[in-house]
């Protein structure tokens, strides 16, 4: 049952990614096709996660593949918080290919089936959930930053086609990117604190070190935004760099098996 729900979710996410790419031409129908693909895929994946949760004795996403499955759902959920607004739908250009790729990797790794939970304890379960939610927030923040950079470049070129895309102002994208990154930083901080409760004396590994570097990068960017007005292109590139570092953290995290 669970595996059957993967295919409608994956097909819908893929359709959304192609539709949003077509939306760069400015045609409104592509955006509508894209958001409906996202919604249908999200409903299918939500049903998949529900089946996994009800069929397991504990936390069913403790493996690397299961974690990617949950991360995919969190990323799409975060996107839907703004993507339902027509002015923000083009965020899907950056979000949906990532979501589709995560779901494919989760499926290939067996993370979309029903397995016995690892029973590692509630602290690890909460830690994993918070870390994945933080990574999902950073993914959405990076998508907002990329849309900012795309729009800024088109404006500098005085590209008249930009008017057909009905994008939000650069200032709105800048504020949204900072807010989503701040949410991600708060979740990451909570995840680190919970993780410390499971840490043995002197037990420090590469994953923890890189996670702290990731935390420091986002914290520095947001503090500099508040103190010296770091914004616009510089903030956008900082968030893109942070997302790149997320791609390093994920394979190293200790909840992978």
Total separate domains: 2
- Unreliably modeled segments: none
Overall average residue pLDDT:
83
In terms of DSSP E residues, the strand content is: under 5%
Radius of gyration: 19 Å
Strand and helix order: HHHHHHHH
Question: Helix count?
Answer: 8
Number of beta-strand segments: 0
Helical residues, percent: over 70%
Specify the structural class: mainly alpha
The CA-CA distance between the termini, in Å, is 24 Å
Sketch the major β-sheet: none
Overall morphology: flat
Can you tell me about this structure?
- The chain has helices at 6-23, 28-54, 64-83, 92-108, 122-156, 170-196, 206-228, 232-252.
- With 257 residues, the protein is mainly α.
- The chain has 2 domains: 1-119; 120-257, no CATH class.
- α1 (6-23) runs antiparallel to α4, α6 (170-196) runs antiparallel to α7 and α6 runs parallel beside α8.
- The two termini are 24 Å apart.
- The model has no long low-confidence stretch (mean pLDDT 83).
Topology:
Blueprint: H1 6-23, H2 28-54, H3 64-83, H4 92-108, H5 122-156, H6 170-196, H7 206-228, H8 232-252
Helix pairs in contact: 1-2, 1-4, 2-3, 3-4, 3-5, 4-5, 5-6, 5-8, 6-7, 6-8, 7-8
